[in-house]
Each structure stands twice: as structure tokens, then as C-alpha cells.
Amino acid sequence: MDQDKPPFAKEIEAKAGEIKENLKHVETEEKNKLPTKADIEQEKKETDKEGS
Description:
mainly alpha; 2 helices
């Protein structure tokens, strides 16, 4: 199966392996949290008051 790959494919795979080994684990933190049901109800009340 390796014979079907172009000659530079092995070099790319080797380099990708090196890069992957050097990556460190990070924890993601969501910054744009969705509004809660209470937030939506509060905003709905505020907009209803402004529209009246």
C-alpha cells in the first residue's frame, strides 16, 4: 500500500507525526455562553415594556 503513495508522502507523514507528538493538551473554555431561559424571559419582558 505504501508503494501507491508518492515519494514525498512518507516525509509528510513523518513530519506530521513529529508535530503531533509536540502538541500539548489544552482545556477549552466557552466564552459565548447561550442565554438561560430566565435570561430570555427577562429580555422579553423588557422589550415588551419598551414596545408598549
